[in-house]
Amino acid sequence: MSTVNWETRLSEAALSVKPSPIRALLKYTKTPGVISFAGGNPDPAVFPVAEFAEAAQILSREGRDVLQYGATNGYEPLKDYVAKWMAPRMGRETAPDEMLITTGSQEGMDLLCAVLINEGDTIIVEGPTYPGALHAMRNRGARFLSVPCDKDGLRVDLLPSVIEEGRKNGHNIKFIYTIVNFQNPSGATLTAERRAELLKIAEKYDLVIFEDDPYGHLRYEGADVPTIFSMDKERSGRVVYACSFSKILAPGTRVAWIAGDKELINKMVMIKQGTNLCTSVVAQALVYEYCRLGHLDGFLPKIISHYAKKRDAMDAAFRKHLPRNAVFHRPEGGFFFWIQVPGVDSTQLFMKAIEHGVAFVTGPSFYAEPGMGTDFMRTCFTFAQPEEIEEGAKRLAAAIKEL
Ligand SMILES: Cc1ncc(COP(=O)(O)O)c(C=O)c1O
User: Fold this and answer.
1) Architecture of domain 9-48+297-402
2) 132 lines ligand 1 (CB under 6 A)
């Protein structure tokens, strides 16, 4: 038994930190027999295990380098690969000093907050948004102002009044956080018009945009929308863009990247030196070799068609089984459905759903403010196996009926 009184020693941050709402729910999803629509996990059944094993040959070729400490800003061959591969989406090839490899996008968020946020500064977030981002931002002392979303993403039209009101009320707004494609959790994609408008507003109010895009490559229908980064033709440095190998390859790699103005990236590199020196060089080298062998280009179409079928299966199952008043849109890509069942408290529904053998994430988890999203839930369609999707929908419908 510990005899140390931690309460008197812990930092303010440690005293106020709360477990991530999704992680807290995930323990229930491990109950045997429970079908999980909860975590935003890729399907392990399609992980490219053999191709990764093949990529491990880089260890026999370059093991003495890749088992050494690496540069903080990332493994150069991987950075080059990503810069070229992403050029069509970014509008240009980003320079090496405009990109930093991070240990997941989660670290990119933390580093961005570390260089921009002082205790009490404000970030404008979408309502709803990714809880992991709220967690990283809170850890660095951020406050929030939320802007609602609809089926076309962030309600950019509401942004000026939120900024003006916020400033009047003493908020020192540092940046706007937006998940542009197949948003987590709403599934919505910000339209090109809204992206252009968002950039104009950021210029007018002199704010930075953090464009988080881990799902952009996973489009199952429709046409790609240009990144906000690529719309910044003047290269103002106002847009910071993040992407990750987690959803398009495997989250266990913990390899992601963040691109932006070189001055900002340089500051992030310096902060990273004090946290983990560099992202695992072994992991970066494996990912690089996997890509160099052409496997990523082969893998993407495979998971796109695999996940498109799962999305269609969830859409059909929800249409068949959920109550008529349930509201949801079929996302054009990504991992998630965002469902409203008017009048049904999703937190109460969660325990009932577990009894019925199905799990989801409750709506309030996705809001910076309490009391929002009570009758919403997020379901992930990528992780469950095809035969589980319809059964899960049936169980969810039965739980709703019983509430
Ligand atoms: C919108 C969004 N951003 C970032 C992340 C973090 O991804 P990573 O695994 O690269 O840290 C996630 C993970 O679910 C996410 O949904």
Assistant:
1) Alpha-Beta Complex (3.90)
2) yes
Query: Ligand 1 pocket, 256 CB below 6 A?
Result: yes
Outline which parts of the chain fall under CATH 3.90.1150.10. 9-48+297-402
Instruction: State the Cα–Cα distance between residues 358 and 392, nearest whole angstrom.
Output: 6
Amino acid type, 402: E
Per-residue pLDDT, averaged over 223-249, amounts to 96
Distance 46 CA to ligand 1 centre (A): 19
Helices assigned H by DSSP within 293-402: 295-321, 346-356, 386-402
Q: How far is the CA of 160 from the centre of ligand 1 (A)?
A: 27
Q: Is any ligand 1 atom within 6 A of the Cβ of residue 39?
A: no
Can you tell me which atom of ligand 1 is nearest the CA of 183?
Answer: 1
Domain with CATH 3.40.640.10 in the chain: 50-293
Residues 6+ apart with CB under 8 A from 367: 127, 128, 129, 146, 373
* Side-chain-side CA neighbours of residue 96 (13 Å): 11
Output the CA 248–ligand 1 centroid distance in Å. Answer: 11
| Integer Cα distance of 82 and 92 in angstroms | 12
Give residue-wise pLDDT tens across range 136-177: 999 999 999 999 999 999 999 999 999 999 999 999 999 999
> Which 8-state DSSP code applies to residue 331?
-
Dump the DSSP string for 18-84: ---HHHHHHHHHTSTT-EE--S----GGG--HHHHHHHTTHHHHHHHHHTS---TT--HHHHHHHHH
